[in-house]
Known about the structure:
This protein is mainly alpha-helical.
Amino acid sequence: MPVFLSALLLGAHFLRSGSVLMAVFTLLFPFVLFIKRSWAARLVQLFLAFGVIEWAITLLHLVAERRVDGQPWIRLAIILGIVVLFTGSSALIFSFSRSLRKRYRMGTALTEENDI
């Protein structure tokens, strides 16, 4: 669920900026997870990492704009900071969840089962 929510937020961001094609791509990309292979999970992690970069750039740009205009910017920075952290956490969930590592046949999950 966090991956799909992160993609939804990123898709809304691209739609708001007028990039319909990127919005559609972003909304469809998490469906790669229906392929139960490690490369699919790693590809989604990479996608989310690019999402983190996009959110961080947006955060810095909007805060700079607001500061130049003399508008309040702290609430904006907090909200977008939370979005950056959430998107990053969505990418890391594959590394910390034993069930996801097992489902996508990622590294240590298989070796842990063999040791038992």
